[in-house]
Automatic annotation (TrEMBL):
<dbReference type="InterPro" id="IPR025979">
    <property type="entry name" value="ChrR-like_cupin_dom"/>
</dbReference>
<dbReference type="Pfam" id="PF12973">
    <property type="entry name" value="Cupin_7"/>
</dbReference>
<protein>
    <submittedName>
        <fullName>Cupin domain-containing protein</fullName>
    </submittedName>
</protein>
<dbReference type="InterPro" id="IPR011051">
    <property type="entry name" value="RmlC_Cupin_sf"/>
</dbReference>
<dbReference type="InterPro" id="IPR014710">
    <property type="entry name" value="RmlC-like_jellyroll"/>
</dbReference>
<feature type="domain" description="ChrR-like cupin">
    <location>
        <begin position="9"/>
        <end position="107"/>
    </location>
</feature>
Length: 117
């Protein structure tokens, strides 16, 4: 384990928004910044997601659950709209789609890869 705290810090100007591409599929209107990449799992487990107005992410399953914190804007999951400052924990195997009419920025903690349904 690296004991230098600087190894674990992601500075605001250190990363740029990238298009969200998963398994070769690009999700238009959704951008991502990886905050914590797990070398063992070969995937990011903590990310920022930015949805442009009208962007959607398809119906999917979270085998290990997820945590979402809304940093700005509004996002809708299962007919419920969350706004800036709202937090959502979904338990393992919770299924839903995601949409944002106005656009939003979200902090996600995703222990395992999602399964598109």
């Amino acid at each position: 384990m690296n004991t230098d705290i600087h190894h674990y810090i992601v500075r605001n100007n250190q990363k740029e928004w990238q298009p969200l591409i998963e398994k070769g599929i690009r999700y238009h209107g959704i951008s991502v910044i990886s905050l914590r990449y797990d070398e063992t799992a070969q995937r990011s487990k903590t990310i920022l997601l930015k949805f442009e107005a009208g962007a959607t992410y398809p119906y999917h399953n979270h085998p290990a659950g997820e945590e979402i914190y809304v940093l700005s804007g509004e996002v809708t999951l299962e007919g419920v709209t969350l706004t800036a400052g709202d937090y959502l924990y979904t338990p393992p195997n919770f299924k839903h789609a995601v949409t944002s009419k106005t656009g939003c920025t979200l902090l996600f903690v995703i222990p395992e890869e999602v399964e598109i349904l």
